[in-house]
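User: My instructor asked us to take a sequence, write out its structure as tokens, and then describe one feature of it. I'm not sure where to start. Here is the sequence I was given:
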Amino acid sequence: MGKVYDRITPELQAWLGRQRMFTVATAPLAAEGHVNCSPKGGDTFRVLGPHEVAYADLTGSGIETVAHLRENGRIVLMFCAYEGAPQIVRLHGRGEIVEPAAADFAALRAHFPALVGLRSIIRVRVTRIADSCGFAVPQYEFVAPRDVLDRYSEKLGPAGLAEYRAKKNRTSIDGLPGLS
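Assistant: Let's start with the prediction itself. The structure tokens for your sequence are:
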């Protein structure tokens, strides 16, 4: 039933790549702060090495993950099989925000397709890799990706996205700093 891995193996990398959705969880240091859990989808996740992953952080109404990572770096990504054999995999680690002005942004950006609403890339140094059974997780059938965020981002354009981020992504719900 549960296994801890010493690295992301080629087999595990292939399994992670087949999952159409994953969830990211972070938390501030303050006990009264809000824990954040955020679903992610689309072609936004990449394994960069046996202990390193990244995902494309798209424009959204909140900035909790970025704010928590700026404060303490703690993050977990959870992948769950909704089709096929049951399995859950968690990647625990230390995350960092790589914004477009960063020296290594272009190199990381090259790992992903063109994403209109891209606001940063979250790179994670993975410190613990573990699976669990997922026996009670229901099966779901994938119907189609959603393009609502892409259409919205295209409609706003670069200037509109910058204005939206300045308004909505400056601080977290707990008042922690968000985007630079």
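For the description part of your assignment, you could build on this observation: Strands lie at 3-5, 21-26, 36-41, 45-49, 52-58, 74-80, 88-98, 118-132. Try explaining in your own words what that tells you about the chain.
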